[in-house]
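Before a colleague's protein record goes any further, I have to sign it off. Thanks in advance; the entry in question is below:
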Amino acid sequence: MNSVKQAVRDLRTGKAPEELLGTLYKYYDYYYQAYTAVLGGLVGHYGILYDGQWKQTYGLKAFSPIAAGYGYSHCSDFGNSRTYGFARKHLGNDLMGSLGTPIVAVEGGVVEALGWNQYGGWRVGIRSFDGKRYYYYAHLQKDHPFAENLKEGDMVQAGDLIGFMGRTGYSQKENVNNIETVHLHFGMQLIFDESQKECNSEIWVNVYPLVRLLSEHRSSLRKTEEGWQRVYPYKDLDSESLDFYLGKGPKSI
């Protein structure tokens, strides 16, 4: 940590990265893109409507997948074995909670997948605005899995309601509860090139540390006669994050 603080001080004095890193600078671009692929969308500029006024700020703009006021438990289970369908590794983090717990988008993006999957049951897949992260929310509630009117192609903001916790899945037939324990399966896939989206070399990361980081940063929702609403409406103000969906596409490493 001391070396990181020293690097920050050096950069603030005007030293260039190549000066600080010396011969290691040749790896700088690779690692910069790798780390920003995971963390790039978690910090930035955003606005929150508070007391009738929009307030702009900078900081952590990602949210826990579990809405504020709802309990859950989890442990580090990435890589554990799974056997339904075929032997494989568990590529996410399971958050145990109560049936119907509201699930929110960790980061803003576009809904790329919404519907039934025999492994994940009712699930939502959201692609970050810069195209580098694909968030997977699975085993949603039987009969009422998704936020009202949510559909593929919709843009959502971080903290928006997307669905409700359940135990669907492990069935080729839709809307079946074959998972023993109510929980959310939450996963994140990194995509440096579109050929990596669905292939044998997909990059899924251990999100357990991320879930722990976001545990105190949770989106507040309330249910009204008009449906579920955010207590504090939110806007992502980093317009450059929309580059992927404006046709510029993600950079490769």
In short: The mean pLDDT is 89. The helical segments are 2-12, 17-21, 28-39, 208-213. Residues 73-246 form a domain with the Glucose Permease (Domain IIA) fold (CATH 2.70.70.10).
